[in-house]
Amino acid sequence: MAEMQFIKLLPPTKYQLTYAFSPGTNSDAKSAVARAFSTWASNTQFTFSESPNHEIADLKIGFYRGDHGDGAPFNGANGILAHAFAPTDGRFHYNEDHSFSVEPVAGSFHLETVALHEIGHLLGLAHSQVQDAIMFPGIAAGTTKGLNADDIQGLKTLYDLEA
């Protein structure tokens, strides 16, 4: 656990979060992200529910290209896969120039695995040095990854919960 870095916290009583997708997000991506939220919920104190209103949701998810107005432009398919802004910002953006898939496919990035990582950032976790942790700062195309004890312990430590 000593390997984990932290970003900043949600308010200490804010464990029920809503999320919404930008217009045009396809159903495969929505399902993959919902599964990732479910994984975090089953391993932490957080609960997540989808909101029909993108404007008022705590967490906002979408696919974007290039300079998309958040101060962190994507640089084509050779750059970052996705990024998320820690609490209380709550934005999570996939880089639309990359290839994403629901199932692990060579040359494509697994939607759910990327979502697991970015949701960790949404909750306040920074990158981990533990290679098996979802918060490790890299993933190969065509592979999947799940939560690791380091990820879960990181949130417990961050929010001062018993291990």
From TrEMBL:
Keyword set includes Metal-binding: yes
Molecular functions per Gene Ontology: metalloendopeptidase activity; zinc ion binding
What does the entry list as the binding residues for Ca(2+) 2? Answer: D58
Q: Which InterPro entries match?
A: M10A_MMP, MetalloPept_cat_dom_sf, Pept_M10_metallopeptidase, Pept_M10A, Peptidase_Metallo
Q: Which UniProt keywords apply?
A: Calcium, Hydrolase, Metal-binding, Protease, Zinc
Active-site residues from the entry: E118
The UniProt entry's GO CC annotations, sorted and at most eight, read: extracellular matrix
Chain residues that bind Zn(2+) 1: H68, D70, H83, H93
State the source organism's domain of life.
Answer: Eukaryota
CC cofactor: Ca(2+); Zn(2+)
Q: Which Gene Ontology terms describe the biological processes this protein takes part in?
A: collagen catabolic process; extracellular matrix organization; proteolysis
Summarize where Ca(2+) 3 binds, as residue positions. G76
Q: Where does Zn(2+) 2 bind?
A: H117, H121, H127, M135
Q: Where is the Peptidase metallopeptidase domain?
A: 7-161
Q: How is the cofactor bound?
A: Can bind about 5 Ca(2+) ions per subunit. Binds 2 Zn(2+) ions per subunit.
The reply on keyword Hydrolase is yes
Q: What is this protein called?
A: Peptidase metallopeptidase domain-containing protein
Q: Report the source organism.
A: Rhododendron griersonianum
